[in-house]
Write a structure and sequence with these properties.
The protein is α+β, with helices and mostly antiparallel strands. It has helices at 28-51, 124-134, and strands at 113-115, 139-143, 157-162, 169-171, 176-182.
Length: 188
């Protein structure tokens, strides 16, 4: 095809573009030969992914039961509130209309108390381990410099202060708070 045989181009159309009247692409049957097998392959991949699993089928009747939840309630009854055993009504079972007894936490005994050690100068991790060995498990720490830094790696911090004075006897349920700085820093 020579330049004289070409149909004229539209104004503003690039020289490499096909003229507007020229057919584009190949024959329709050639395009179908590519699209249909591609669609079949995608369908088979989808079926393969959808069918993958652990091989078990679950129906409503074969579901495993949920684990049972056990709740323990401890009730302390004072001797003055206990009914006398001599009356015949005392042996009768309690009705559901009776008010439930309120559980009260027992007062801390001497066994529930411990002496707070002196943690100043200890590595924060060692101070926490020592506090737990003494029976204190409610432990917090903060940055003594006031910068608000988090004590992510406790072995890189040292204790400067503590919330309870060393040598005092407190309940083991007391929260101990340690003021700490980095090992290379001095305490404020």
């Amino acid at each position: 095809m020579t330049s004289h045989d070409r149909p004229p181009q539209q104004p503003g159309q690039p020289a490499w573009a096909a003229p507007s009247g020229a057919p584009t692409g190949g024959p329709k049957w050639a395009r179908k030969r590519v699209i249909i097998p591609a669609a079949v392959v995608l369908f088979l991949i989808g079926v393969g992914i959808g069918g993958s699993g652990d091989g078990r089928t679950t129906t409503a009747g074969s579901a495993e039961p949920a684990p049972a939840v056990t709740r323990t309630v401890t009730v302390t009854v004072s001797p003055a509130a206990a009914p006398a055993a001599a009356t015949p009504d005392a042996a009768a079972p309690a009705t559901e209309a009776a008010a439930p007894a309120r559980a009260q936490a027992p007062a801390p005994t001497e066994a529930d108390r411990a002496t707070v050690p002196d943690f100043a100068g200890m590595v924060l991790q060692t101070a926490q381990d020592t506090a737990q060995a003494e029976g204190f498990f409610l432990l917090t720490s903060h940055d003594s410099t006031g910068a608000g830094r988090m004590q992510v790696l406790d072995r890189n911090w040292k204790v400067c202060s503590q919330s309870r004075a060393a040598g005092t006897s407190v309940p083991t349920t007391t929260t101990l708070d340690f003021g700490a700085v980095k090992l290379e820093e001095s305490c404020p």
